[in-house]
Amino acid sequence: MGIAASVERLDRVALADAAAAADVVVSTLPAGALGERVAELATATCVLDVVYHPWPTPLAAAVTAAGGRVATGLDMLLHQAFGQVEQFTGRSAPRKVMRDALANATGNEIPLPL
User: Which has the closest alpha carbon to 24: 52, 53, 4, 51?
Assistant: First the structure.
């Protein structure tokens, strides 16, 4: 697919430089795990923050405030659910209904297109 990936240890990388150079930063860290280093990752232009509770995470808030784009763990959860419904039932997932149910259950707007 032509995709290069690297995994970096937080204690051995200049986060601001790495984030600024990356096309996408994927964070699987718990919401508060970055502590004060979250500001360094705010230089990323695009982040997939797989955490979905609590939302927004400090990372998502920092990236958004800096003008970056964030895909949420809720987005990922929802799209996984679409695939599961379709595989289990053999029918198209009722995407709008599912998105609205998730938004109502979490109190978060789910803005991604269906």
Answer: 4
The DSSP H or E segment spanning 26 is: strand 25-27
- Please report, for the chain, the start and end positions of each structural domain, with discontinuous segments joined by +: 10-106
Pairing of the two strands 25-27 and 69-72: unpaired
47 and 68 in contact (C-beta within 8 Å)?
yes
Judged against a pLDDT cut of 70, whether residue 111 lies above it is answered with no
**CB atoms near residue 76 (< 10 Å):** 16
The 3-state secondary structure of 65-98 reads: HCCCEEEEHHHHHHHHHHHHHHHHHCCCCCHHHH
pTM for this one?
0.78
- The end-to-end CA distance of the chain, in Å, is 24
Topology of the domain covering 10-106 = Rossmann fold (3.40.50)
Beta bridge partners of residue 49, listed in sequence order: 27, 72
